[in-house]
Amino acid sequence: MDEFLILSLPPMVIASLAAVACALPGNFLVLSRRAMLGDAMSHVVLPGIVVAFLLTGSGNGWVMGAGALAAAGLSALLIEVVTRRARMEPGAAMAVVFTAMFALGVVLLEMTGTSGIHLDVEHALYGNLETLIWLPGPPPELARLALIAAGLALALRLVWRPLVLATFDPVFAQTMGIPVAWLRAGLTAATALAAVAAFQAVGSILTISMLICPAAAARLLTTRLPMQVAVSLGFAVASAVLGYVLAGYAPLWLGLPYTVSASGMIATVSGLMLVGAALTASHRARARL
Amino acid sequence: MSQIPLDVRDLTLRYGDVLALDGATAHFPKASMTAIVGPNGAGKSSFLKSVLGLEAASGEVRAFGGPVADAMARIAYVPQRAAVDWSFPVRVIDVVLMGFYRQTGLLGRIDRRFQAKAMACLARVGMQDFARRQIGALSGGQQQRVFLARALAQGAELYLLDEPFAGVDAATESAIITVLKGLQAEGATIIAVHHDLSTVADYFDRVLLLNRHTIAEGSVAEIFTRDALARAYGPSLMLAAE
How far is Cα B104 from Cα A185, in angstroms, rounded to an integer? Predict the structure, then answer.
């Protein structure tokens, strides 16, 4: 088989699926000004995965995913408790909880030496996209991420109408009998699930860029929500593919003897897309005056 | 079926140490139009939200002879304009269509029938030409009219409006009052938090004077007196007016 199909296509598809899974809830995080929650969820995934591994001894992706979701639920609860008991503003409570959980994850990881299963600190922080190759069959992450992305898309389609209403006008939504609190919790869960997906591809630190950048860029360039979501998915896939190609091939084209981290390049590309969108949007706003 | 649209008894709401409502009591007869009037911090918005069950207040609220929760489909609530993010990526028509949510549900198709009904609601508030605009492109008064159109879409019998005239232009104010009087003529009951004491007598037929508890309620002629206002606002307002 062609080298590209074996070495490059699987990680590119996986990165794209992770980016799509993240961009879906990301649109609603941006609209409800809860982007910080994305950062929190992408960090608390780490201790969840480590603890799940320590408890079960299994490197199975589903086991680790379950651990990550449990950690996400626990930290959502902790954030509530800290907000109320310590009378802290929610942003600060979130920051305290997720950095503490993340630090715990890093310490656990270093103390227990779980590096045998791609779970050393570097991979946890930056992802291990380059190792997800076709060998001899597809990497198990491929099917898992496809399932997560499809599941999130389906769930979003189902609750689209009440979710839009609850995001736009939560008080009015409540008077219409929409379970606003449940939708909020559902968005938190979807964010956690997307963070688990992205963890595989780009690691803990850069997941936030997948959650927020494509949606924030699309928000700047569109005036209707369905269009915003569609454009954000386009940006998500484009940043994943372009980032991977630039990381793996651009240095070779330039005659450099090394490649750079794919996850770092993906996050950089999506950041640049956001910058481009911001410039375009302010330019358009000026042209309208 | 002469059930009273809204009957509120002993409504009490506490935010931490602050008592926002302290045993407010009021009743609102069918096809009446009531202004809720009172000083800042008197709990006027809290009163509406507590009635709707949006705040965890104690007391008894009955709508159309039963618990409010069972009557929500017959009640339309128009929040303060400032309560939402007007840069949200929806068009005017999309906001009005939200008023049909109880009929369309999760996945019910929004067909031409609903589109036409939404356009009729927009026409009633004079906003039919703005249907395809993004809501962020509207003026404050136009935004308020869109909110009212969304309430019309609900086809309710009881309308609760939180400061519908706050910060709107004169054209909007007269458009809104025309619509509200039209609804009243059709038998609907209107309750609005209102700030401008000078227009109370022109716009409304009943008044609820509120300052955490009920100071007075009844017809404008009976209740809207210097004496009652002084009790609600304190004597300083009266001095300023003179």
Answer: 24
Confidence of residue A48 (pLDDT cuts 50, 70, 90): confident
Q: Do A169 and B79 touch (CB under 8 A)?
A: yes
Give me the residue from A174, A175, A222 closest to B89, CB to CB: A222
Chain A residues close to B79, C-beta within 8 Å: 169, 171-172
Q: What is the pTM of this model?
A: 0.88
What distance in Å separates the CA atoms of residue B119 and residue B152, rounded to the nearest whole number?
11
Q: What is the pLDDT of residue B181?
A: 95
CATH superfamily of A3-288: ABC transporter involved in vitamin B12 uptake, BtuC (1.10.3470.10)
Give the whole-angstrom CA distance, residue B220 versus residue B229. 12
Domain topology for B6-241: Rossmann fold (3.40.50)
Q: Which ipTM score applies to this complex?
A: 0.88
At A213, the pLDDT band (50, 70, 90 cuts) reads very high
Contact B72 A175 (CB under 8 A): yes
Exposure of B105 by Cβ count < 10 A (0-12 exposed, 13-18 middle, 19+ buried)?
exposed
Token code pair at residue B197:
């004491």
Residues of B in contact with A167 (CB under 8 A): 88
